[in-house]
Amino acid sequence: MDEREALARIAATLPDAGDDAAVVGSTVITTDMLHDRTDFPAGTTRYTAGWRAVGASLSDVAAMGADATAAVAVYADVEFDPAALSAFVDGAADVCASVDARYVGGDLDRHSEFTTATTAIGETDDPVRRSGATSGEAVCVTGTLGRSAAAVELFDAAREADTADGSVRGADEEVASDRLDRANELFRFPPRVGAGRALAGHATAMMDSSDGLARSVHQLAEASDVGFALDRAAVPIDPAVDDVAGTAADRWRLATRFGEDFELVCTIPEAALERAVDRCPVDLTRIGSVVPADQGVTVGGDPLPDRGYTHGDVDEDA
């Protein structure tokens, strides 16, 4: 049973589950767990890990159209290195400050590998769920896609530059260092809390793209009982992807199926689209239209496979 099957079972008994965050009164709350082996490639700094871990939960708050208020985290590691712990807290505090929220602490524990579990809370009187899209609306995405995929490619390239004994020398050392710096920069994505708030009055359905654009539109389509017709050329792909993708197929895969970009994917009525674009503090790109459910999810007229990131499942297809 993979993550999606597990979530479906939980949602069958817990009516508040199923969106990016649970809503209790006017409070939204969400939690995420990340592990060293699966979520932080070799070369990820603890500052980046703190930023990314807490940012992932803040992104869920953003997807509900809520104001982010605070976050906490569990920090577990094989040992408590003072510099590493301090860097993690700095990253967590800085990503919270970037969206006018507060990082207010958490818990410490020992573990067989570096692991963090983060919880973020926010406030809204009118949450945007995944289930409100209707045929005829526009499908939009914030920012650009593929940052995280490009970062992982750079982390991998830096590791491959290592010599047989695990060290790097001379020019290779400088190249590896530059790649790691760039990879960490790309990995520190901006949570779209401001965009979520700006879109809350216009979007009929919304979620973040943590599982990849392709999977996200399938999840929105299922929740709203609609289909989507996407325009491949309109999908905004981050320039960093062009630096690491070897082919056009790689470029598309990295941008739409890798996931972990934490951009917002939403549906907006045609009449509200221009105002939504004007009010959104980041680029908001129309990538397609909502269509009746029997037309399925397509890109350029061809079926778009439901492929992306899922815990407990490895997608090997190119």
Task: Please count the beta strands (DSSP E, at least 2 residues each).
Answer: 12
Rounded mean pLDDT is 92
- Biggest β-sheet: count, sense, barrel? 7 strands, mixed
| Overall geometric form | globular
User: What's the order of the H and E elements?
Assistant: HEEHHEHEEEHHHEHEHHEHEEE
- The stretches of 5 or more residues where confidence is low (pLDDT under 50) are 311-318
Task: Report on this structure.
The chain has eleven helices and twelve strands. By secondary structure, it is an alpha+beta fold. The C terminus is likely disordered.
Outline the fold blueprint:
Layout: H1 3-13, E1 22-24, E2 27-35, H2 36-39, H3 46-63, E3 67-77, H4 82-98, E4 102-110, E5 115-123, E6 138-142, H5 147-160, H6 170-187, H7 193-199, E7 205-208, H8 213-224, E8 227-230, H9 239-242, H10 248-256, E9 264-268, H11 270-279, E10 284-291, E11 297-299, E12 302-303
Parallel strand pairs: 3-4, 8-11
Antiparallel strand pairs: 1-2, 2-5, 3-5, 6-9, 6-10, 7-9, 8-10, 11-12
